[in-house]
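// run 5 | inverse folding | seed 20
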């Protein structure tokens, strides 16, 4: 399969623009990171947040932040003894840090939820799952957004 030179050039330009934006925006994100960390701590309710069991799927390079598909899966038997009670997705740069929440139970069968979200700009997303035993598991992804959405106060 041969890729047209204009398509290759477009992809390289988008990746380059996204990388430059990521480098320039990262220092200003400290305040946003603190707000997201506080929201995650509130969701965890004092429990340590562990890596693993959760898989957050989102494209690492997004052309348009207005409609971004997101999928979260969790490794769980979904039995009465071991199941996911709630899933939450948080982000750094959107006006509201709490992107989505899903309530589940043992009758859900399997944990595979998806939705479409808006992303203001390049940022980190975190998916959390609270298990019925109170443990909290997480996965995170850094996303580069070429065309931003959700920016408030711009004309």
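// decoded
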């Amino acid at each position: 399969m041969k890729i047209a030179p204009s398509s290759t050039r477009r992809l390289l330009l988008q990746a380059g623009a996204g990388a430059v934006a990521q480098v320039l925006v990262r220092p200003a994100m400290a305040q946003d990171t603190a707000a997201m960390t506080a929201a995650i701590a509130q969701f965890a309710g004092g429990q340590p947040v562990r890596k693993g069991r959760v898989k957050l799927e989102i494209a690492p390079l997004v052309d348009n932040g207005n409609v971004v598909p997101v999928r979260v899966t969790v490794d769980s038997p979904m039995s009465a003894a071991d199941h996911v009670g709630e899933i939450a997705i948080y982000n750094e740069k959107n006006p509201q840090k709490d992107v989505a929440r899903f309530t589940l139970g043992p009758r859900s069968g399997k944990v595979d939820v998806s939705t479409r979200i808006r992303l203001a700009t390049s940022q980190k997303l975190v998916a959390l799952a609270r298990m019925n035993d109170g443990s909290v598991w997480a996965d995170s992804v850094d996303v580069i957004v070429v065309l931003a959405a959700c920016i408030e106060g711009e004309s």
